[in-house]
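My main concern about presentation is that the manuscript never shows what a single data entry looks like. For the editor and my fellow referees, an illustration may be useful. For illustration, here is how one protein appears when written out as sequence plus structure tokens:

***
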Amino acid sequence: MNKVLIAPSILSADFSKLGQEIKDVERSGADWIHIDVMDGHFVPNITVGPVVVRSIRPLTKLPFDVHLMIAKPEAYIESFAKAGSDIITFHAEVEEHPKEVIKLIKYFKKKVGVSIRPKTPVKLIEGILQMVDMVLVMTVEPGFAGQEFMPECLPKIEELRKVFRKDIQVDGGINESTAPEVIKAGANVIVAGTSVFGAKNYKEAISKLKGQTYPCRGGGR
């Protein structure tokens, strides 16, 4: 089993003090920083762009895990790569030529992720699995934070783990109750938004997501 990694999603952070939030989760044991990019077309919401990625890049050495929930990822890969992204994930549903997108991400020497929505079958990405570093299985419909976990996605994670030995990431409704389920199914990278940034103690929240027992010593972030 691959090591369990926690990638707090800044979509749920307090943007009035985003820099401090990132430093706090890094100090609390986060492994990656997850950045949700939405364009108002592929999903009904608009979030951040390359300018934000560039502005927060100097604040941490943690890998930036950038999830492009956008209609034309190929048009923005260069911008996000040069802004400081380490992993760039695109959605299989928007691409007729995913291999070209993968080649473009690799051209900029970044790791490649491909994501599938809850109703998208693993079969759609079977032909490109050998080309990517990570598969992101959405366990909610992408677009907004704070949605309820969809347990019907668990068999998809199990199916994927049988044929894919690299990182399997899950995103959507993940908390200390649902994290063990997705880890048992085969996921090893956990995206968590409100369950981390909504907690009083970030270190305790991250430890619980990893399945670790957190000592009760009080304290904050």
Notes: DSSP finds eight helices and eight strands in the chain. The chain has one domain: 5-209. Helices lie at 18-27, 50-56, 77-83, 98-107, 154-163, 179-185, 194-197, 202-209. The two ends are 29 Å apart (CA to CA).
